[in-house]
Amino acid sequence: MCSRAGGCVACGCECADSCVVKGCLGYSRDSEIELVKFVEEHGIKPVIAKTFDFEHAVEALETLKSQKEVGKIVIKIAEE
């Protein structure tokens, strides 16, 4: 199911008690710039649930597919 709400197209959204957004499209460039400025000004950081080394990418994808974690699943490509 696809629906459009507030400039965001949510595909695969199942709304009962909660809503899972599988993708988001449709923001203007100006809206994106405004959002980036807001995030930077307020120090907003993503919630990282788990971090995996590249060698464990399959496990990371299985974790993502399980939808049991709250936050981002990160796969490290290279050491910093």
Q: What is the arithmetic mean of pLDDT?
A: 78
Helical amount:
25-40%
**Low-confidence parts:** 1-16
* Number of helical segments with 4 or more residues: 2
As a whole number of angstroms, the C-alpha radius of gyration is 16 Å
Description:
This protein is α+β, with helices and mostly antiparallel strands and 80 residues long. It contains two helices and four strands, in the order ββαβαβ. The strands form two sheets. Strands 1-2 form a two-stranded antiparallel ribbon. A two-stranded parallel ribbon has the order 3-4. The longest helix has 14 residues, at 29-42. The termini are far apart.
Summed up:
The chain has 80 residues and is of the alpha+beta class. Helices cover 30% and strands 24% of the residues.
Question: Which properties best describe this structure?
Answer:
single chain; 80 residues; alpha+beta; two-stranded antiparallel sheet; 2 helices; elongated
Fold blueprint:
Blueprint: E1 2-5, E2 8-11, H1 29-42, E3 48-53, H2 57-66, E4 72-76
Parallel strand pairs: 3-4
Antiparallel strand pairs: 1-2
